[in-house]
Amino acid sequence: MEQRKLGKNGPTVSAVGLGCMGMSVSYGEPNDEESIATIRRAIEIGVNLIVTSDAYGNGVNEELIARAIMGRRQRFFLQPSLVTWGCRGSACLRDFPVVIPTTFRRRATRR
């Protein structure tokens, strides 16, 4: 898998990341076994950038990823997306001081 440096001094990540939204929501019934197998296969071929969000299944997606990479966490970069549902324009920015700390506290409890 081709690797790329993030920014000038950032870490090196796989050129292709694995987006995991469809593993928990949006595209039919979730199948945890199949999703975990997909994540582990991505690992085998060199993917080390995994994209998730607290909005994907209200945190269920992050818990699924945690189970899939358990014991290998130091080998990955998680790219979390933050979502504030129903906000418009500058209201979204006003919510971030509350949303971001809450989201990261919740993520810290998921291992």
Pick out its properties.
3 helices, 111 residues, two-stranded antiparallel sheet, alpha/beta, three-stranded parallel sheet, TIM Barrel
Describe this structure in words.
With 111 residues, the protein is α/β, with parallel strands linked by helices. The protein has a single domain, classed as NADP-dependent oxidoreductase domain (TIM Barrel, Alpha-Beta Barrel), CATH 3.20.20. Helix content is 38%, strand content 16%. It has three helices and five strands, in the order E-E-E-H-E-H-E-H. Helix 1 (32-44) crosses helix 2. It is globular.
Strand content: 15-25%
Q: Which architecture name does CATH use?
A: Alpha-Beta Barrel
What's the number of structural domains? 1
Number of helices: 3
Classify the fold: give the CATH topology: TIM Barrel
CATH class: Alpha Beta
User: Could you state the CATH homologous superfamily?
Assistant: NADP-dependent oxidoreductase domain
Main sheet: strands, sense, barrel: 3 strands, parallel
Mean pLDDT: 77
Q: Indicate the percent of residues in helices.
A: 25-40%
- DSSP summary, beta strand count: 5
- What letter string, H or E per element, gives the SSE order? EEEHEHEH
Distance between the termini: 26 Å
What is the gyration radius calculated from CA atoms?
A: 15 Å
Summing up helix and strand content along with how strands pair, one would put the structural category as: alpha/beta
The parts where pLDDT drops under 50 for at least 5 residues are none
